[in-house]
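Researcher: First entry.
Model:
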Amino acid sequence: MDKNKILEMSNAICKNTLMETLEIDFVDVGEDFLIARMPVTKKVHQPDGVLHGGATAALAESVGSAAVFILNKDPNIRVRGIEITANHVKSVSSGYVYANAKVIHKGKTIQLWEIKVTDAEEQLISFCKLTTYSRPQ
């Protein structure tokens, strides 16, 4: 399947989910990574007007879990995030943030992902680690 088809399919399955609510959009994919973006607007701000860490974690878990499913190329698995950590290192109040999920360990059952969340200038906003569990449906 080509890159555009994968991205189109990934975005289509986000309808009526948290990803649609947060306006997460998958924008690039390769052999060992998946990138999604999310607009930073008032609906994802914390009270003082900067991106909420929970919204950032939701973006990171969404792209990491989707990466397992897409890069595994097995439509008969269920993927669940079982642990996520997020270190927020810079604030952002507008524009887009981009989450780039790269595989650290791609086991058959347990996968480990590094997810860097950056702004449009590629400045690090948050560094996340996601552990996922895959099993047959």
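Researcher: Second entry.
Model:
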Amino acid sequence: MQITEQRENDTITISIEGRVDTNTSPQLQEAILKGFQKVNQIVLDFEKCVYVSSAGLRALLIGQKTANSKKGAMKLVHVPPILMSVLEVSGFVNILTIQ
């Protein structure tokens, strides 16, 4: 997995490329939490992400809880259909903001 981060004003966009699994999800979680130390708005771009495991879903849940506790926002963009189906089946579409 490769993560790139871009800051624009009060928003950080984190682009995820590759697979978010047990081995790589700590990197995503760390990027999200570090982002929330700098700003209150995080955008996660999943355009080049091909897989998210349950460990990756946990990182997203921790990110959303952090956003809620900081009165901030986290949203997912460019979510591929295969990932969207995982989010739907797991019920995460009711927890996360997805555009």
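Model: Note on the second entry: The beta strands are 2-8, 11-20, 41-52, 73-77, 97-98.
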